[in-house]
Amino acid sequence: MDGQIRARGIAVEGAVWTAEEHVALAGRLGLDGVVFDSYDLPREVFSAVRGTVPTLAIVDGELRGADADVLVDQNLGAESDRPVLPAGAVRLAGLEYVLLRDEVLGLRPAEPPVLRAAGVPRVFAFFGGTDAYGAGPYVVRALAATGVPFEATVVAPGDDLAGAIGAVQLQPGQHVQVIGPTSELAKAVVESDLVVSASGTSTWELLCLGATAGLVCVVDNQEMGYERAVATGAAAGVGTLAELKADPAKAAAVLRKLLTDPQERAQLAQAGWKLVDGQGRARVADALVELISATT
Fold first, then answer.
1. Which residue ranges form the domains of the chain, and what is each CATH number?
2. What is the pTM of this model?
3. pLDDT at 3 over 80
């Protein structure tokens, strides 16, 4: 992560922890505004810095003590939630404010996705930077249980996961390539007919890219986002990881439909493309710049 930040020409400072240290750091750097993205900082840090410069905080449902001038909750359906806000705070909520990287925006199709040429479907599967819950092998097992041909590339961050994926018995016409973590996720997504991923923040990237997304709820705190995403008709619900571990049959039925029905894939991709327009970070930046301008 440090390398990714430095590669973008952004200076890196050592971590500070207390409210006094944060205020001193903002003063030493001559900051006009501060963006917080942390579940761990205590409320007094947010409040102290907010007392000196305009602040923006990224939140995820519950505010967890985040006291800022602008609160950004980029989760699907967040605009319908009504958390109690700090005095004077403005909340920007919903997919209209999703923050996406240049890599994603640069590969976003200019038009809604259309039906791809017929052939063996290409599948790409990834589950975060580490696949911490070991979803990869169980998804491959469900793919194999479909009984239909596919060409899959699966990201496995570690030899144990790669070995478990390689041990899955495939059926005729099914092929799986295992790769390590890649910096070209977005490119792999747009080159695939079906993308299977955890129902986390990467979901919004998939939708913006016009991917046919099959989501797996790998951990309990993803359940609300998973259910909301599937309910929009912009993603298919493959199931929870617990369900895939217990029996792949239900997930296999969902995946079989996605692998064999190009029209279904196109409809999901088009719905996702329309749902996330990729302009969220510009809207968030405009809100912060407007706030800074109003206080200088």
1. 2-100+278-295 (3.40.50.11190), 103-275 (3.40.50.2000)
2. 0.86
3. no
